[in-house]
Amino acid sequence: MALPPPSQGSTALVTGASSGIGTAIAREFAARGHGLTLVARREDRLRRLAAELSGSRGVRVETIAADLGEATERDRLAERLAGLGLMVEILVNCAGFGNSGDVAATERARIIEMVRLNCEALLDLQARFTRGMVERGRGAVINVASTAAFQPMPGTATYAATKAFVLSLTEASHAELEGAGVTATALCPGPVRTEFADTAGVGPAEERLPGVFWTDVEEVARAAVEGAERGKRVVVPGLLNRAGAFGGQHSPRVLALPIVKRVWGSAT
Known about the structure:
Order of helices and strands: EHEHEHEHEHEHHHEHH
CATH topology: Rossmann fold
Number of helices: 10
Number of domains: 1
CATH class: Alpha Beta
Strand order of the largest sheet: 3-2-1-4-5-6-7
Structural class: alpha/beta
Oligomer: single chain
CATH architecture: 3-Layer(aba) Sandwich
Helix content: 40-55%
Strand content: 5-15%
Shape: globular
Distance between the termini: 45 Å
């Protein structure tokens, strides 16, 4: 099995755990008996989730409120884990956000902040914790990308570019870690009913995409954990999303870009 077994001194570190996919993945790991470290900015939500999981599953749950877009906060997170005597044997990089709007019309500070969180923070945490995993000969990383990673997306260009980075990094890392007892899995969900769309400001997304394209967050989380358990390189939940990802990778850009622009450009 690709996932290390639960143990007293190990933890599954889940970032972006205060809502959406991060919360659902934390529940999946708790159901398998893994202790958890939940990280996000909203401490009140983390504490409610921790109480739920420790009460219903009997697992150890730590909460650490942090803004992972800041390097000093990532340092503090690592120091806190070391102080607790916890080894990160499963890392779920779920923290991130999106936006809607052309690059030229979007607040510059906001899209730079997105790159720092979606790319820099994810890479930093992976680099910090996979070293120990390799030394111990066991571990798993789940990096949350998106079906947006498979093609450029006018109207949400920076977000799609960050997810393309996550996908490329994870696929290459999966190959680098082969034989080390450690796996890296890219989770690439399509549209999921969470707070994400509202936060990203993408407008009435459900009006632009038929309901058949939407996936329940519990299904996404289950696919992520089962995929990591099987050592999969990439997980795309949902048959139509897998077809869309294939099309995004292989469709000529001259044909695909105008279509994507019409769909996502209408959000702004």
